[in-house]
């Protein structure tokens, strides 16, 4: 235990040290059968410790990138109390040009299910597809549409994933004008 604490202590500030040691011990308990089977248990413990340390630094770097991105977002003076229906409706209109950029199979499947409100079974019958075939098209279409959308707009959601606000990265993109995603710049 002392060797483990020295190993962690050399890499972390005192306020983080105990958390990292706790993470290491938790991982050792979870994989205790591997520890028992190890030829050199101390070497295995130190390898686990090294992996936990690496995971900690990766997580911290990821959190710092997220915080930097969050800090660069404009600060709202007033916290939204409820979803603004006009923002969601306006945003829905902006999606139509992006939907039109999808290939015909994906566009048809998404239009029937998401816009016309048909069940996936009804849409599959209308398109002459199996249910699993339609589900696959809808899923792929959603993924393609999401990527096009993320390439064009910054979207602010509430905790329930309702749209609070959105902002196009480039003028014309995502405002219903019909601009193609490849014409839009990234943030």
In short:
With 187 residues, this protein is mainly alpha-helical.
Furnish the topology, listing elements before pairings.
Elements: H1 2-9, H2 14-30, H3 32-37, H4 41-72, H5 85-100, H6 104-115, H7 120-127, H8 131-152, E1 153-157, E2 163-168
Antiparallel strand pairs: 1-2
Features:
single chain; 187 residues; mainly alpha; Arc Repressor Mutant, subunit A; 2 domains; elongated; disordered C terminus
Description:
This protein is mainly α and 187 residues long. It folds into two domains: 2-60, no CATH class; 85-183, Orthogonal Bundle (Arc Repressor Mutant, subunit A), CATH 1.10.10. The protein has eight helices and two strands. A two-stranded antiparallel sheet has the order 1-2. A hairpin with a 5-residue loop joins strand 1 (153-157) and strand 2. Helix 2 packs across helix 4, helix 6 (104-115) crosses helix 8 (131-152) and helix 7 packs across helix 8. Mean pLDDT is 76; it is low at 77-83 and 174-187.
SSE order, one letter for each helix or strand: HHHHHHHHEE
CATH level 1 name of the largest domain: Mainly Alpha
Strand coverage percent: 5-15%
Query: What is the strand arrangement across the widest sheet?
Result: 1-2
| Whole-number tally of structural domains | 2
Cα-based radius of gyration, to the nearest Å:
25 Å
Please give the share of residues in helix. Answer: 55-70%
Q: Indicate the mean pLDDT.
A: 76
Contiguous low-pLDDT stretches (5 residues minimum) are 77-83, 174-187
Shape by Cα distribution: elongated
**CATH fold topology of the largest domain:** Arc Repressor Mutant, subunit A
Continuous helix count: 8
- Structural class from helices and strands? mainly alpha
CATH superfamily of the largest domain: Winged helix-like DNA-binding domain superfamily/Winged helix DNA-binding domain
C-alpha termini separation? 48 Å
**How many distinct beta strands?**
2
The main pleated sheet reads as: 2 strands, antiparallel
């Amino acid at each position: 235990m002392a060797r483990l604490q020295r190993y962690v202590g050399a890499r972390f500030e005192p306020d983080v040290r105990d958390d990292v040691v706790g993470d290491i011990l938790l991982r050792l308990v979870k994989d205790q059968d591997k520890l028992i089977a190890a030829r050199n248990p101390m070497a295995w413990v130190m390898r686990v410790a090294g992996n936990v340390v690496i995971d900690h630094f990766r997580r911290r770097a990821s959190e710092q990138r997220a915080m930097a991105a969050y800090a660069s977002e404009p600060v709202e003076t007033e916290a939204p109390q409820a979803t603004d229906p006009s923002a969601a409706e306006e945003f829905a209109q902006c999606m139509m040009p992006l939907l039109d950029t999808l290939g015909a199979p994906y566009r048809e499947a998404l239009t029937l299910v998401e816009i016309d409100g048909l069940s996936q079974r009804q849409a599959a019958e209308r398109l002459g597809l199996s249910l699993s075939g339609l589900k696959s098209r809808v899923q792929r279409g959603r993924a393609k549409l999401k990527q096009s959308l993320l390439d064009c707009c910054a979207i602010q959601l509430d905790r329930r994933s309702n749209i609070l606000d959105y902002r196009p990265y480039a003028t014309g993109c995502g405002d219903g004008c019909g601009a193609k995603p490849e014409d839009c710049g990234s943030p």
